[in-house]
Amino acid sequence: MNINIIEGGVTSPKGFLSSGIHAGIKKDKNKKDLALLVSEKICNAAGVYTKNKVKGAPLLVTKDHLIDNKAQAVIINSGNANTCTGEKGLIAAETMCSLVANSLNYKTEDVLVASTGVIGVQLNVKPIEDSMTSLIDELSPEGSLSSAEAIMTTDTFSKSLAIKFELSGKEVTLGAMAKGSGMIHPNMATMLSFITTDVNISPALLDKALKDTVNISYNRISVDGDTSTNDMVVILSNGLAENTLIDTENEDYLVFVEALKTLNITLAKMIAKDGEGATKLIECTVSNISSEEIGEKLSKSVISSSLVKSAIFGSDANWGRVLCALGYADVDVDLSNIDIFFESAKGTIKVCENAFPVNFSEELAKEILLEKEIKILVDMKSGSHSVTCWGCDLTYDYVKINGDYRS
Amino acid sequence: MNINIIEGGVTSPKGFLSSGIHAGIKKDKNKKDLALLVSEKICNAAGVYTKNKVKGAPLLVTKDHLIDNKAQAVIINSGNANTCTGEKGLIAAETMCSLVANSLNYKTEDVLVASTGVIGVQLNVKPIEDSMTSLIDELSPEGSLSSAEAIMTTDTFSKSLAIKFELSGKEVTLGAMAKGSGMIHPNMATMLSFITTDVNISPALLDKALKDTVNISYNRISVDGDTSTNDMVVILSNGLAENTLIDTENEDYLVFVEALKTLNITLAKMIAKDGEGATKLIECTVSNISSEEIGEKLSKSVISSSLVKSAIFGSDANWGRVLCALGYADVDVDLSNIDIFFESAKGTIKVCENAFPVNFSEELAKEILLEKEIKILVDMKSGSHSVTCWGCDLTYDYVKINGDYRS
Known about the structure:
The structure is a homodimer.
Chain A: E1 4-6, E2 16-21, E3 34-49, H1 57-65, E4 70-80, H2 86-104, E5 111-118, H3 126-137, H4 144-150, E6 159-167, E7 170-182, E8 190-197, H5 203-215, E9 221-222, E10 232-237, H6 251-273, E11 281-289, H7 292-304, H8 306-313, H9 319-328, E12 339-344, E13 347-353, E14 356-357, H10 362-369, E15 373-379, E16 385-392, H11 396-403
Parallel strand pairs in A: 4-5, 8-10, 9-16, 11-15
Antiparallel strand pairs in A: 1-6, 2-3, 3-4, 3-10, 6-7, 7-8, 11-16, 12-13, 12-15, 13-14
Helix pairs in contact in A: 1-2, 2-3, 5-6, 7-9
């Protein structure tokens, strides 16, 4: 299996065009706030949505438009999440779709919509309507970067990615753009990811592949434990790579899932790394555990702990906090013989053996923890599963971004 | 029912003495680190312990010594939590008890022990042994403040309290000292609370009253979502008030529970308010909800949300984050017709009605939120229960205390 991550984005697969412009939803004219993604050919499509009971209007409209598992375009705005906006909000989201549909002669139900930004404020569609011509004029097979920029909020870098691989000898491509847990006053973090591919695959298997890989990528990151009302991951496949249709869980399907998993985990890590105020990526792998489910709860408990996150920010080899976080995870496990290691590009150090302190070089620990990507390895010695989750450190800037709305 | 909170502490009830000294566990000689609490008469006693699977050695010893529901003394050190210290740690904790027992001619099993501070480092009992004479010499009915100071870690103020009330005409007293979620490098937050009373009550009802009131006080606060390995609440009753023994759930029992509840909630709020780096107490009341259990999950989700905590730090009327936190609480409730209010000494303001924004004065909201005690009121309109939980804001100083170990 040969899976190559390449520079690129949503327009890397055949037949996809995208654009990103400033429409006037954000006040700053230098910031793009409206993106459009289209496929020359109608796509099979699937989506995964936030588990928050409060759901944004665009999410409800997208879910509805995906009932037939078909889509040809996605319109996304940043600067306003169109959430807690009632009937008016649903009309605004539906209008965004119909504006695209009318301009491009698509069916409104084949256009999906996503929004991120302030909630509880009505979204004015006028600037979107007024910008439709230029949004469509800008559509380009080189539009990846522009569209990825237009969906950013407090993200510090745009997130795009593509992967090339082969399915039974045919070269195929996956592309994606995402935005991370960035927040706009007065609002909440949102995670969005849009994936494109020219792979020929049935709607049912596209849906299955998406759900299975989302569960072990985006669903294994945490920035601050808050789950947004607008989180959404959508995948579109137009089949233009002309590979033999994948409609059973054959070898090609497994390769596709592997590539999609790589894509989603890479994006998820980019999102975790770019968490609000974050200076470091934290990766926690719980290994030799009896089940994936238990491993995930343990790992998530570690990467979500404010005390662990603060310790990593301070480059402090505080394994006691890791053990403490494992101890309050809601699972029934024996912690009496676990080992804990810290690891980075500078090396690996064992800090705890059989749940007891070991003597270690404070100097080496410091050197390891001063790196920007920190791994916390927990060996449970009680099974054969291994689970990794990702998070980021807790910093002054997180508080600044989310606490001081004047900043 | 006449329940009066008075100045005082663990020695306010009849027959209790306490002391607090610097023994040398903390490096700073100006900081007390060893406390002793004794009763002239053997007490009925009960305890509640951390739910963390990793439990400190003192906790295991205390639990063991409380099997007969009797105790006469509690020795507590700060500066070292004596956790993850194995067999040696258990011996150290047991030794602390026997040192007190030998000096005072008590049985070792009648002495309880608690520790708070760094974990994973062996506790040296030598300084404790060397200080035993002066610790006992200092025992005094005016020792409340000294002992409360000796159990502090990063707490910014000592926490003591007493309550006077009557049981069938007899004046009785409850006293207590607690420490909050303060952390010592390289370690974790710990909550400790020691309650004394001269009330005459059976061990079974003392235990029941303690558990019932702990569940709606200490168990409803959160500073950072991390549950320590050493949390402990202990109550001692020596019966010296000579009220008629409470051995059924009669009127006197109900009054006692009400007083104990008031004591525990007041202390819990003090702990939340003094959360690491905190500048504000946050109180979230979820009212008109179908059950206590659901209300508690909703309220805890709000006070635990990093985004809500940051918003309150910034005095930002960000009800969207409150709604968001309610939305991801793990309960099945209808959020479509809820109202949200912010309240403080400056007034009350409705910010959300039926889950939609209402127009409100940003100026008044700011004035309300600039106060030090902020209430978030959530009206669920779907039942008759009401639950309150307490937390604190998330500030630069939380990150400083927990992230920068040089500070």
